[in-house]
Design brief:
60s Ribosomal Protein L30, Chain: A, alpha/beta, Alpha/beta knot, single chain, 37% helix
């Protein structure tokens, strides 16, 4: 295991640039995953870890993760606590961070059973929340428009809590083309829709379309949907957070399908 204690070390400088720059991560096709839970979730799916950075305390506390990463040919680097804290994205670093190739999404088949499409969501927390809800609900595929927050950014990864590794995530997707070609029901969530999502038949193949936090879905995408549905709000709130609204819709589909917690719908 290499030990790095200087900010001038090339490996550390490379990591610092990668951790701080979305453009650098996109350019190099790499993702930074921080925390034992997320690194384990990544390893559990058989994905390659290129580098594993740990503090001495974390290496001693998480020997299994270090051993698994090393078995997969990852370069293991021990960072001084101060250096790790400088690249960490959280206030109380756990002392373990992995660099992995950013997974490429697969094309979504027209006959898919359960999908979620996100258009122009800007808040990383909303995107991460919806990915987490999608994984819990048994969604197979999540499509993101080119203007969505980057799914593999550190903030979205933290909000997703490992959900990324249970989903096929396709970024830069043409959502209108997907909606037009999808064989099941495409359900546009819209506060102006006449029908409630609770009155909509969601038992067959379905793809939910969730729009921007403020503007909602674009007219083009809403028009491409086969169904429009709203979430009833008898209280005084004017709207719901996009992450909350999408999650309610996903689990209404789960309820209608009679699924038990933990079962998928693939």
């Amino acid at each position: 295991m290499k030990t790095v204690a200087s900010r001038d070390n090339p490996a550390y400088k490379s990591l610092a640039k990668l951790a701080s720059s979305a453009a650098e991560r996109r350019k190099r096709g790499l993702t930074v995953i921080e925390g034992a839970h997320l690194v384990e979730a990544c390893l559990d799916t058989g994905r390659t870890v290129t580098q594993l950075f740990v503090t001495r305390a974390a290496a001693e506390a998480q020997p299994a993760i270090v051993a698994r990463a090393r078995a997969g040919a990852a370069v293991i680097v021990e960072l001084a606590d101060a250096l790790f804290g400088a690249v960490s994205g959280v206030e109380s670093p756990a002392g373990i961070l992995a660099v992995v190739p950013t997974p490429a999404g697969r094309a979504v088949p027209a006959g898919a059973r359960f999908c979620l499409a996100l258009e122009d969501l800007q808040d990383p927390g909303n995107v991460g929340t919806l990915l987490r809800s999608a994984a819990a609900a048994g969604v197979e595929h999540v499509l993101l428009s080119p203007t969505c927050a980057f799914a593999w950014s550190p903030k979205v990864l933290r909000a997703g809590q490992g959900a990324h590794f249970a989903l096929n995530i396709l970024e830069g997707a043409d959502l209108a083309a997907f909606a037009s070609g999808f064989e099941g029901a495409t359900v546009a969530l819209s506060g102006k829709a006449g029908a409630s999502v609770f009155e909509t038949d969601l038992r067959g193949p379905v793809a939910f379309l969730v729009g921007n936090e403020g503007a909602g879905l674009s007219p083009e995408l809403e028009k491409a949907a086969k169904v429009r549905a709203r979430i009833p709000m008898p209280g005084r709130a004017e709207s719901l957070n996009a992450g909350v609204a999408g999650s309610i819709a996903l689990f209404e589909a789960v309820r209608q399908r009679g699924l038990e917690p933990g079962r998928g719908s693939r």
